[in-house]
Write a structure and sequence with these properties.
The chain is built from 37 helices and 31 strands. The protein has about 900 residues and is an alpha/beta fold. Among the domains are: about 260-350, 2-Layer Sandwich (D-amino Acid Aminotransferase, Chain A, domain 1); about 385-520, Glucose Oxidase, domain 1 (3-Layer(bba) Sandwich); about 555-645 and about 685-900, Phosphoenolpyruvate-binding domains (TIM Barrel, Alpha-Beta Barrel), CATH 3.20.20. The strands form six sheets. It has an eight-stranded mixed beta sheet. It has an eight-stranded parallel beta barrel with strand order 24-25-26-27-28-29-30-31, surrounded by six helices. It has a five-stranded antiparallel beta sheet with strand order 1-2-5-3-4. Helix 14 crosses helix 21 and helix 24 (about 610-630) runs parallel beside helix 28 (about 705-720). It binds adenosine-5'-diphosphate and magnesium ion (2 copies). Adenosine-5'-diphosphate binds near residues 100 and 252.
Amino acid sequence: MSENKDPHVAQGVKFVFDFTEGNKDLKDLLGGKGANLAEMTNLGLPVPPGFTISTEACKVYLDSGDEPAALRDEVSAHLTALEKKMGKKLGQADDPLLVSVRSGAKFSMPGMMDTVLNIGLSDKSVQGLAKQAGDDRFAWDSYRRLIQMFGKTVLGVDGELFEDALEKAKDAKKVTVDTDLDAAELKKLVTRFKKIVKAEAGRDFPQDPREQMDLAIHAVFDSWNTERAKLYRRQERIPHDLGTAVNVCSMVFGNLGPDSGTGVAFTRDPASGHQGVYGDYLQNAQGEDVVAGIRNTVPLADLEQIDKKSYDQLMQIMETLETHYKDLCDIEFTIERGQLWMLQTRVGKRTAGAAFRIATQLVDQGLIDEAEALQRVNGAQLAQLMFPRFDEDAKVEQLGRGIAASPGAAVGKAVFDSYTAIKWSRSGEKVILIRRETNPDDLDGMIAAEGILTSRGGKTSHAAVVARGMGKTCVCGAEDLEVDTKRRRLTVNGHVVEEGDVVSIDGSTGKVYLGEVPVVPSPVVEYFEGRMHAGADDADELVQAVHRIMAFADGKRRLRVRANADNAEDALRARRFGAQGIGLCRTEHMFLGERRELVEHLILADTEEERENALKELLPLQKRDFVELFEAMDGLPVTVRLLDPPLHEFLPDITELSVRVALAESRKDHNENDLRLLQAVHRLHEQNPMLGLRGVRLGLVIPGLFTMQVRAIAEAAAERKEAKGDPRAEIMIPLVGTVQELEIVREEAEQVIAEVERTTGVHLKLALGTMIELPRAALTAGQIAEAAEFFSFGTNDLTQTVWGFSRDDVEASFFTAYLEKGIFGVSPFETIDKDGVGKLVRDAVAAGRATRPDLKLGVCGEHGGDPESVHFFHEVGLDYVSCSPFRIPVARLEAGRAASTSTGSDHR
Ligand code: ADP
Ligand code: MG
Ligand code: MG
């Protein structure tokens, strides 16, 4: 890109920011890591000086293939300023300034982009570093680390080659840990590493410090588009065009001996939310050593004995950060010869249960208000808490115990590599992925598995962090288990678990069991079911937190929440879960089972009399269903949809029937009924039933069908009224495309209702409305509202007809390809397509209300229970959403979140 055409230059855009220039709200520009480093710097915390190259620079690089023209000079200016501050130059031979080059996008993407430490070391400056530190070993250790990290992440050399060389060096000296290698051995290792680089990368390890830095910066930019990063973004629905920032940070050293070290910490337990000292510390170590499991870490609490001054300071800083961020923070720190340095902080990931508990704890501490508490949790987390758990009373054989890293109960066959996990899960097997520890290459396997089990690593290990992010059950660091990935088995106390053996893991307790452990419902579900009370003395902490958050949500939400339920049992559960009515009662279920035969009679009727007889037989059965339903939902609205599916769905399968008839014929055994049925099946056969004779079309061409249903509803309502009940039935006509269809059905229905009122002497107030599930209905909503007292958006069919997708066909055949290609980030059947389907909904709402200001508006497609869609429906002004009973709590919560404005939080 030529300089004068660069729009950034024209606008005087700046690409590099000193840590003193940013703040935590600049995540779009500086990435999460950079924004928080700046925030800590400005809080006066001990952060090693440095600067951040913005995501804007990365975007230019990714778009044009080259860094913006102004970047080099800007970096030089900031580097010079940094050198001045530190009193030494990058890579200076006698006293080198060293830096780390660290990626950091807006959203943290675990394991995606590796940091390179110790940049600036070379064959010359390694000597200077040794002299300055008075420690040869330290200098050569730092240098070998640089070549290793640089070789792997920047030059793309297979990291195992370095690992193997390191192992060999340890073996040669018969030691097991890297700290036992002395300066001379490390120096030899450096030579070995340089040879590996030369052989594998086809170039020498760069000796020019600035070249090292520039190459590393470009490698960070490039890493935005690795396959793994793209997969993670798709999974997490992170846009692909954000780009990453790059942080250049002056080095501090945790590998300067036993009075140095590196650690990670949480301000609260990310699994329970309890306050306390949570973290790991490793003496004489650098960077990732603490989470890589190369040596055994000590609990953070032990730091008090090791270095009381640094420990006290750290505790104070953690308190400062929590109060400042008003949330659980996670922290990376390093101690260099007794001096504490803060290297990273961010609002920490947490389990679903902890999210609820922390939100209420912070309200109690006066740090956040109710509206903000609602922003700290989400429907997906609530859904996760509603998962079943292992039965504590079951007879189990415990194999071992690890760290409870991500909750849930997972059962599956043991597999020991990601490839097998994917292969087996594709053929429908449930698998548990068992590894010594995971790395980013295991991502696909982790996605495929029911749960993840590792024998090494703590709560901050790759497996733990990624599993929590995915909401997947994970037990990590189960040290008793000896995992042998080569022989595909694990041994524990003489017990051998082979590939394919069933294991059960409990991510809430860390326990690992042999065989399949039965599961029981979650306490949160027990609470919603009313079998457990939040006020009880022994009520579980989580249940109390959920109870309070739900009360916040119910207090704030404008949207009402109804259930899709077809029978009294589901209706009663929905009511317990907080449903304020039924938004969709499908009547087709009422035509199945033993009643199917009656429907057959209806379809096969040759004369009016036969048809009427069939309907007459169906009427009392339908009526009884409605009486039960209205009783269960007494006082609350119940929307009954008249018959929707094509009639052939009630007839036998065409092939089966053909065979039966053919066999009978060959035996000369004529079955008149089967023959007639077969004719009917042929007559009713449709090329595309989704767009055929169904919905209102049935009501218009099959005399008496809809009126029978209306009569059943009306008579049931009258009966309930006579019993002093309060039935609130609403009659809903499906698949209307034009107001004329609705007018005809409406007129007939009104006659029937009037007749029932006359004969029973009961006054009925039955609302009549329609579904909006065809594009034409949405486009002519203004006209349709003249004949409808309510609209219920059928977003399943509306999505099918707007996109021209037949759901069953597309989901199975090409949706994965569409998702992979990023055509949409999530299936439009899961989350409403706001730009297309959503636009029709929005316009139809406006047009409908223009005709009839008191038009009642709701949605009854599955989107009614989807968190993101609920926010959309709130925004376009619907009155209610309706979803399956189990998703009602999620919809209530999300409706409350949508209605309460955030006071500026760090949460996505
Ligand atoms: P990640 O995004 O994977 O957390 P980081 O950029 O935080 O990567 O760096 C990886 C490791 O290196 C962390 O343990 C971090 O604390 C450490 N680290 C990064 N920069 C420095 C530095 N300037 N001095 C010392 N350690 C550093
Ligand atoms: Mg980090
Ligand atoms: Mg429909």
